[in-house]
Structures are given as structure tokens and as C-alpha cells.
Amino acid sequence: MTTATIPRTRFALVGTGGRSTMYSHALLGTYRDRHDLVALCDANPGRMAFYNREFAAKFQVAPLPCYGPAEFERMISEHRVQCVIVTTTDRTHHEFIIRAMEVGCDVIVEKPLTIDVEKCRAIHEVTRRTGRKLRATFNVRYTPVACRIKELLAEHVVGEVFSVHFEWLLDTRHGADYFRRWHRDMRNSGGLMVHKASHHFDFINWLLDSRPETVFGFGDLRFYGRANAEARGDFRPYVSATGDPAAVGDPYALQLTGRDKEMYHDAAVHDGYRRDQNVFGDGISIPDDMAVIARYRNRATLTYHLTAYSPWEGWRCMINGSKGRLEVVNEEGAFVTGAADPRLDRFGSAMPHQAGAMRRILVRPLWEKPYEVPMPTAEGAHGGGDARMLEDIFVGGGEDPLGRAADHRDGTYAIMMGIAANHSFATGQVVRVDELFAGAF
Ligand SMILES: NC(=O)c1ccc[n+]([C@@H]2O[C@H](COP(=O)([O-])OP(=O)(O)OC[C@H]3O[C@@H](n4cnc5c(N)ncnc54)[C@H](O)[C@@H]3O)[C@@H](O)[C@H]2O)c1
User: Fold this and answer.
1) DSSP helix/strand/coil, 263
2) Tell me, what CATH number does 201's domain have?
3) Residue of 52, 89, 113, 346 with the most ligand 1 atoms within 8 Å of its CB, for mutation
4) CB of 88 shorter than 6 A to ligand 1
5) 22: which residues sit within 8 A by CB, 6+ positions away?
6) Are 20 and 13 in contact (CB under 8 A)?
7) In a domain, 129, yes or no
8) Are 100 and 170 members of one domain?
9) d(CA 286, CA 334)
């Protein structure tokens, strides 16, 4: 299937934090001859000013006009914006999707689409009423390894899929990062079951070409948080790490320097947003260990585990079918050390191909010898998914036989499992997804 080529478009970005960099740099750099980035909107003027300085230095462009959230519609009309890219904190995605569509814009929104059923309902209502387009960005679908698995299933190497066993591990650098800032509050992110696992559930939905029907799970905060650290005798008394002597030598402490210090620490005078909080501090309301069991509409079952305090980073996915079994191990980093480590990015994300990391795709047909399928290499951010996704979003026109492009329905299916699991964690009940999302779309 070939997707349409994307016509020249006037984009604005709302939410100029870490993730926005990928879009702004793409629009001002690689795709500058195809599209226009015409304005920025954020609640923090310091962060927008930082980006304008960076854009001038990197791309030799004049400062982009900056707007606060209350001036969002004025920004759209003054700059004849056609498409808004939403990279704000998760709990605000719905607000900017709705406001953009109400004034005639299409929207590209980062995962997760939103964090609860009510906001999801409002997004579907405005999409239906205005007829505007929404693109949900799931970069995992664009990673070479995910595409290879999707192709293998399409080739029926395991026949009809009956069950999936999926484990995702976040190491003590990357995983810890979700406990340092806004994600740590359930009201901002929906917890990792929505914020992080929406990637994973979208991946499974896409592989199975189905959506969840029944969900049950347990989620608990066992590792991070003050009470856990105190019980282990590891509590360190600091609130934010940067510049606090109590944080020195703590491998979990994020000392903001350089670009990140300017973007977050220095900009905190405007809104008090602390990027570098103590992961063993107060105020963490999200689980760090989550176990889920689910059944899909097509009768396939899923067992899923997300651990946010692991010694290594990556995932394992085992797929059982009528003709055999597919086993994938994708270690993105074999280990992390507490010391500054050049193989890690600035927030401690593990780099692919770290020494000793194991990456393997194995097909085990029934009654036959298993065979290995070459593991595709994954250069670039997020397993090589980001660059491929940007090409699809900003150029289009390519082959998309795997159906990687995602809309508001895919965005909804991706958060269903996590929202349902959160309900199950809280109530101890089995959750029927259609009942929970009744009338949402
Ligand atoms: N697909 C991926 O791999 C990936 C990776 C990282 C982040 N993300 C997503 O990108 C989004 C942003 O994450 P981030 O890491 O850049 O966070 P961040 O905290 O660095 O940036 C969020 C920005 O939103 C702004 N903001 C918050 N509330 C606002 C409001 N009401 N109005 C206007 N601006 C507001 C903040 O000031 C900040 O600049 C999140 O939804 C996250 O899930 C996706």
C-alpha cells in the first residue's frame, strides 16, 4: 500500500520540552524545504527562548513567534497554522487536540493519545464533528525489529497466533527517569501502564490486528519512592539533585548540565517544573512493577510485565501460534553502571548494541529444528524508529504494506489496556474494556 505524499504544510508545536526537539529539528533541518514550522506554544517562556537560541545557532533561522497556552487560537490564526504537533505532558494532550481541531487544524500527537476515558471520549467527539485528521505517533511500529516481526507473522511462520508473552524492562537509569518528574504523578501520565506501555500495547495490537477485550492485573510501587528506600535503609534527603550535595554519589541522581540545565533547571523559575527530583522522594503515585493478563477480541491472550528498575534495558516477546513459536530477545543495553557512562545518552537511556547485549529472533516451528532470522540493525534514536516515522509523517508517499501509520482509533486501542489495567490494579476486578470505554467512540 502506498501512502499519499504530504503537501507543504504550516506547522506549529505545542509543548517545547525534550520530545519536541525531534520534530522541530526535523522541520527546520531535514524537511525545511518541504514544510514550515511557523510558531511555538508552551506554558514556559524560558524553554521556548532556549529553543529559539538553539534554532538560531543550529539552523541560522530567525526566532519563531512564541505563545502561551491562553494564546493558542491566536497563534493559529496569526500564522495560518494547518497542523499542530502536540508534545505537551500527557494530561494536556486532549486540550490541544480539541482546541486545534475546533479552529480547523489537523493534529499530530505524541503517545499516549490521552490518559483517561473521559478525555478519550472528548477527542473522538471533536474528531467526528470537525472531520479533522489526527495522527498518533507510535515510533515502535517503525523500528526495523518490529517491522521484521510483523512481516514474519504475515508470512505465517507461526500460523494463527494464540498467545503472546511479553516482558519490557526499563533499567535503573531510563526507568528511573519516569520517577524524577511529572510522570511520577498518576494524574499527569496515567502511570507507566498508559504513558509507557501504550507503546507496547500498540505494538501487540498491531501485530495481532485486534484489540483488548478483557484485562486483569496487579501494579505496585515496590522499588522507587520514599517508603521503599527508607525500608531498605537507602533514603537520601534531597528534593532535586542538581547542585545539592546530598545527591552527590547517588547513581539515581540526575545532575542537569549544559543544554538540559538551560532547558529545565534554568527555566524552572517560570513554572517550578523540576526535571531532576529524587526518585526516592515523596509524591510518587505510579507503580514501578506491573503485571497484566488480557484477552483480545480475536481470542489471543497476552501476559505482560513492565519493570521500571531493571539491571538491563530491552524486551522479550514470545509468540505462540498454530504452527510454532516465535521468540524475540531485544536487549538494548546489557547493563548500566552508576558512573557516568559514554554509552548512555544524557538521561541514561541505554544505547543499542551495547557490549554484551543479546538480540535474537528465533522461529521454532512445530516438529522441526528452530532457525534464527537475522536481526535487523537499529541505528538512531528509539531503535531506529524515530527517523523512519518522521520520513513517513513529513514526506509520506512511500510503501506502507505493514500499515504503520496510526490514527485516533489506534491511539485509543493503545491506551485501552493500560487504563483498564489501572482500574484492575485499583479495584482487584477483571475489567471488560468495552464497558469501560462505553460511548467513547
Ligand atoms: N514516542 C516517544 O518515544 C516519546 C519519547 C518521549 C516523550 N514522548 C511524549 O512526548 C510528550 C512530551 O514529553 P517530554 O519528555 O518532552 O516532556 P517535557 O516535560 O520535556 O516537555 C513537556 C512540555 O510541555 C509543556 N507544557 C506542559 N503543560 C502545558 C500546557 N498546559 N500548555 C502548554 N505547554 C505545556 C512543558 O512546559 C514542557 O515544555 C509526552 O506526551 C510524552 O509521552 C514520547
Assistant:
1) helix
2) 3.30.360.10
3) 89
4) yes
5) 381, 386, 390
6) yes
7) yes
8) no
9) 26
pLDDT digits 0-9 by tens, 13-35: 999 999 999 999 999 999 999 99
Ligand 1 in reach of 52 Cβ (< 6 A): no
Residue 441 falls inside a structural domain: no
Facing residues of 293 across strands? 216, 303
User: How many whole angstroms from 85 Cα to the centroid of ligand 1?
Assistant: 11
> How far is the C-alpha of 374 from the C-alpha of 33, rounded, in Å?
37
Give CA angle at 152 (147, 156), nearest 5°: 145
Q: Which atom of ligand 1 is nearest to 182's Cα?
A: 19
Q: Could you write out the DSSP letters of every residue in 111-164?
A: SSS-SSHHHHHHHHHHHHHH---EEEE-GGGGSHHHHHHHHHHHTTTT-SEEEE
Largest CA distance in the chain: 66
Out of 71, 90, 110, give the residue to mutate to test ligand 1, the one with the largest number of ligand atoms within 8 Å of its CB.
Answer: 110
Write the single-letter amino acid at 75: M
Cis peptide before 112 (omega within 30 of 0): yes
Which residue in 400, 327, 388, 394 sits closest to 143, CA to CA? Answer: 388
Ligand 1 contact, 16 CB (< 6 A) = yes
Work out how many domains the chain is built from and give that number.
3
Supply the range of the domain harboring residue 95: 10-139
Are both 254 and 350 inside the same structural domain?
Answer: no
Tell me the CA–centroid distance for residue 89 and ligand 1, in Å. Answer: 4
Distance of CA 364 to the CA centre of its chain: 31
Atom 7 in ligand 1: which residue has the minimum CA distance?
19
In the block, cell 558512573 appears at 339
Q: Do residues 112 and 406 touch, judged by C-beta distance below 8 A?
A: no
pLDDT in tens, 217-262: 999 999 999 999 999 999 999 999 999 999 998 999 999 999 999 9
Tell me, in angstroms, the distance from the centre of ligand 1 to residue 19's CA: 6
Mutate to test the pocket of ligand 1, among 23, 85, 87 (most ligand atoms within 8 A of CB): 87
Report pLDDT digits (tens) over 382-409. 778 899 999 999 999 888 899 999 999 9
CA distance 108 to 286: 27
Whether residue 92 has its Cβ less than 6 Å from ligand 1: yes
Q: Does the structure show a pLDDT above 80 at 103?
A: yes
Average pLDDT over the chain reads 93
For the stretch 155-203, pLDDT in tens is: 999 999 999 999 999 999 899 999 999 999 999 999 999 999 999 999 9
